[in-house]
Amino acid sequence: MAKTRNLLFEPCISDISYDFLEHSKLYSYQAKEYSERLNAVMSSDYFMRNISHHSIELGFCEEYDLVINTPLPPLAKALNQLNQERSSQRNYDPDNKLSLQDLSQFLYLSYSITQRFDPLLLIPPRRNIPSGGGLYPIDVYVINQLIEELPLGVFLYDLFSSKLKLIHAFKDREELKVALNTTLFAEQKNDIDYSNSSAFMVLGAELERSCFKYLDRGIRWAMIEAGEIVQSMYLASGSLAMRTCAIGGFNDEALAQLISYQNPSQITLLALSLGK
Ligand SMILES: Cc1cc2nc3c(=O)[nH]c(=O)nc-3n(C[C@H](O)[C@H](O)[C@H](O)COP(=O)(O)O)c2cc1C
């Protein structure tokens, strides 16, 4: 490949991948059918029992016991405790809202720079999560509902400056309510206590950031990275005595509009509710 090619300006996501991304979007007209399907699975003892106990059938093979009952070093103990406590928490205390400090600590522990750029050694900045090629295609957005020190609005979390950048301010609570209903189907779904969640996190991917190097395969790495951040958010929330839950059912187009994505290569991969 010629060295002079400017990879940054070449289209790198195939039409087929865009078709897939389009097909996997959820629109408001599908929301009812989608949640009926989910409820059908979740209300069935048979499905729930079998799904949660599944494993790959290998037939006969040799087996070796793992040795896990040995004492753990202190950091490992802390991680083990966090792992035991991690769970999806769907209800939030209406009398115990998050403060800006709570949110700041949560964001810092979930996703932050752990090593700054060293121009002498040309070491790029490092974050608390691994990233295919160190390209970090995920952006974290915050929708504030109940945090009093912040306006009601949508923010980009800038982890370089540790600032929240206001993208959209809601005129009033009513506009926020309509936005949550349109984007997260807050009034149509009763799985999560949307109205008492202090804030919502939105994980948006800029796929080009990963695909310019890895082509369509970069889409996989972006999805994996969103998973890493979700897990990190769950553990951060557990360590700070907060409650969080992933939200997979959202209106892709409405969220894209609310966040003002600028390119079709920007997509939302997941949202989360956060409270106490
Ligand atoms: C990608 C993804 C999407 C999810 N979407 C939802 C959702 O829309 N609503 C919900 O109540 N829980 C959602 N969850 C939470 C799962 O239901 C939960 O993780 C699972 O039941 C296991 O329970 P646990 O997290 O408490 O261990 C989602 C989790 C993931 C990872």
Automatic annotation (TrEMBL):
NCBIfam families: antibiot_sagB
Protein origin, superkingdom: Bacteria
Stretches assigned to the Nitroreductase domain: 85-276
Species of origin: Aquirufa aurantiipilula
Stated name of the protein: SagB family peptide dehydrogenase
Record-linked InterPro entries: Bacteriocin_Proc_Enz (IPR052544), Nitroreductase (IPR029479), Nitroreductase-like (IPR000415), SagB-type_dehydrogenase (IPR020051)
PANTHER family registered for this protein in UniProt: NITROREDUCTASE MJ1384-RELATED
